[in-house]
């Protein structure tokens, strides 16, 4: 395997933006892929995967390379050399790679692999938090699973096509997929591909949505004709799933604090042919009050630490702060108490997060059930999904029903 100079320079520049300019990895990768129109799919894959890999393994690679933050360009080259050696590349004799002996790199890797915080490349505080919340044995497996590369999972938009039709359309484009038992609308790519460039995506035949995330809306049991509130809709991954399961019949009220996210949702809804969505920005509590006891179903897809989706967002390991996790738990509590009031007597509520921490999940639900608002609800069931046992993202979802 040969390393190509212009691809590697793009990787180094991109790492500089992520580590030193505090930019988000996904945005930097998207920009990097536009740098040279002549790149083929293998080149693009190299650029994207190498950037994500170095971000994911930052702590381990920095320790092996003997460099400390803030990383200057020499440091970034040393970390890249670690990546290349561990992936089996023969280092070319470029001047930037001088002084990075492969034997030393392999030796340090062996030594550091005995210590979890280096082996799994995580900050001490996340390692301690995970151990405290999940127990040593489960955390050990979970963090290892969350360091693997995420699969690309599609959700078929049943407003426009069926799973078998989409599978055949993608096959025509040389994109092979497989179905997964118990996930009725999911297709998993056998090999990574940029599906956003396909005509099938542009026509709204599918969305990219992890399989665990695809379990949330079915749990809420939405039916055509219902009034459903998606209270933390964001860019609307689950709103679109609702529209699809409701066959565009009934009313979905999608809410969020941010107009920018609602805008993204509107674009996606148009592409999906989802017409039964109303958009509301939450500027004050009035928006919630207006809907008290008006909804058959409410989804609270709560803001969270994201400690279930590190595969997808490896830079979250470095951007996340302990204070953020403490704060977001307070927000979750307030949202559960306040927004649950929108559920009609006899209606249903799902509380979900993309975190594996019990303190954001089952413990929040337990606390809520003991409050005045919570006393009107019964916990029907919940699902604690770990990446290590499911093979997909870590998620939590609880179904609560409001008493009549
Ligand atoms: C987990 S994300 C939602 C993802 C989205 N449901 C999807 O499936 O694509 C959580 C969302 O909650 C929003 N949010 C944060 N605080 C909120 C609040 N107090 N009320 C409503 N939404 C809030 C965030 O802006 C974010 O979009």
UniProtKB/TrEMBL annotation:
Q: Does the keyword Nucleotide-binding apply?
A: no
Q: Which UniProt keywords apply?
A: Methyltransferase, RNA-binding, S-adenosyl-L-methionine, Transferase
InterPro entries, alphabetized: MeTrfase_RsmB-F_NOP2_cat, MeTrfase_RsmB-F_NOP2_dom, RCMT, RsmB-like_ferredoxin, SAM-dependent_MTases_sf
**Catalytic site:** 354 (nucleophile)
A single Gene Ontology MF term assigned here is:
RNA binding
Q: Which residues take part in binding S-adenosyl-L-methionine?
A: 256, 301
Q: Where is the SAM-dependent MTase RsmB/NOP-type domain?
A: 142-403
Biological process (GO) annotations held by this record are: RNA methylation
Q: Which family does it belong to?
A: Belongs to the class I-like SAM-binding methyltransferase superfamily. RsmB/NOP family.
What name appears for this protein in its UniProt entry? Methyltransferase domain-containing protein
